[in-house]
Amino acid sequence: MTRASATARSSRPTGRRSGDTGTRDAILDAARDLFAERGYEGASIRAIATSAHVDPALIRHFFGNKEALFTKTLADRTSLPQRLFESFGGDPAGIGERLTDTYFRLWEDPDTQPILLALVRSAVTSSLAADMLVDALEARIRSQEDVGPIDEQRMRRIELAGAHLLGVAVARFVVKFPALTALDHGTLVAEVSPAIQRYLS
């Protein structure tokens, strides 16, 4: 083997790293950075694999497709879930207003709105991505101290609140219903938060 061919071989992704967990973490870290830098469309599987120093086939092995990888990355490698979970701390009587305010601010933020839009689109077009999102978010919810103990009834109430907020967000920011886009942030929170409070309390 020539020195040039040996060098070329050593520079290629070698596949599995030290254990599945290390490989998955490397892929998720690379995906987080590239999705943030290039957006969903601009971050290819090959580019993510190159950044993580793995073979592209390993991404398909662990995550199935780019939609599922994107969903898993958002759940595990961004601050979006944590920012929402922080709303559960404090006076229980104000949880509906805090959560509603935080959620719609994320949609209004030009840095986070593209991520949320891409998340919605990937989850509704890929059943695998949707399943992975649900599993990842439920695991994160159960692990958060601010959220408190989670039984089946509490999880159902949290999911109802999330479904309500998501529906309003899609109507306002994606479909752009005129009556909803006309509302300022404070009015929107005031209209929606009583229902979210009822779900969660």
UniProtKB/TrEMBL annotation:
This is TetR/AcrR family transcriptional regulator. It comes from Terrimesophilobacter mesophilus. Residues 1-13 have a biased composition (Polar residues). Keywords: DNA-binding, Transcription, Transcription regulation. It comes from the Bacteria. Residues 1-23 are annotated as: Disordered. The keyword DNA-binding applies. GO terms for molecular function: DNA-binding transcription factor activity; transcription cis-regulatory region binding. PROSITE patterns: HTH_TETR_2. Pfam families: TetR_C_16, TetR_N.
